[in-house]
Amino acid sequence: MPTNKMPEPDVAMFTGPIGKMVNELDPYTEGSKVGVLATLLAGFSAAVGNLPGVGTGKGSMPLSFWPVLVGPTGVGRKGTATGIAMKVLVEGLATFGVNNVVYGCPATGLGFAGELSERAIRNVAAPVLFIEEEMDTFISNSKRDTKVGTYLRKAWDGATITHKTSQLDLVIMKPHVAIVGHIQPKNWGAISGSKDATGGTYNRFFPVWVMQSKKLPVFATPNPEELIKKLGNRFRSMVNFAQEVTELTVPDDVALVFENKHREICDALTTGNEELGQYTERAMAYMIRIAGLYCLADKRTELALTDFDAALALVQYMVETVTYTLPEAEADGNDIPARIVAFIREAGEQGVTSTEVARKFQRVRAAEIRAIVDGSERIKTTKLRSEGGRPATLFTWLEDSEQTADGLAVVA
What we know:
Helix content: 40-55%
Number of helices: 16
Radius of gyration: 23 Å
Strand order of the largest sheet: 4-5-8-3-9
Distance between the termini: 38 Å
Order of helices and strands: HHEEEHHEHEHHEEEHHEHHHHHEHHEEE
Structural class: alpha/beta
Oligomer: single chain
């Protein structure tokens, strides 16, 4: 069942050369490590082109990756995470950065097909990486043109896209698209539970929760320029290797463990959960795609168990992101007070701050939260010392023995 637990990354996802890059970049950015990882994987998946794929019994699985960074405005640091990852990509692949990276994903069928057609050679698409920092707006606008969803689905599968009108006849064969999106949690939660997801378009996207990882000094943070140059060279070397590969294979012994371990765990993540059921098929497909990217980044053509371990960790994080953002978007408003009270109670003696509650229940106004807290005799509120700005309030759950004699539990 969906939970309210904030997603926690497994260190297994930060393995191999790309994982090492993320760890090396981390001291220089306030962006989430998962956000940096997802952007690097998406950029790598675009740059390698449409040729390499993972061989399966149903054909070759393409490697394009479409992460969506889901985080609150300001403290999510979505742009920060994507920004430092893109510096590595552009440093290593300057020409690709100019010709094949598009900021803003077209919200019309013609616009999307046009961007691909513009770069195609004899109707065969060149790879394109879309960076959409206003995913909310893109999704809202794209609903006006049903062809957008159709073309997105075809692009995800690498199937030929045709756009015909009385004046145009566009044919894009072998489209290879990667997309990095940014969106607020409440908006992704609304999408996850809607027909847009269950219809098969937006469950092709891969949501990952991101939050500011740390605070760095404004004037004393080390300059990452030299590191970016070094990582750019590494990134280019990985891409050069990958572009020479036609197909990745899975050895029999690895395939056996995958069937008995990774596939079983992946299926269990969503089985029996109606809200997550829409992600079941995509979760396993993505696990294979991501494992292929980890393999190529390590300059191998045979997938190893460590590739699937890393991919499974990222898929688990994706499912946790959905379960973390979905309940509040779909919950009946009458259930919100009980959820807030339960959230405070589960924090135990440590308590939670008003800021943490506000971030957790973003659709609930501060005045409503205060009214809910004031209405419970079991919640103690304590003003915390301010270190600049508005002071936060600590909410702590009181057991029966801790309540005051008159039932009040408020400390000024």
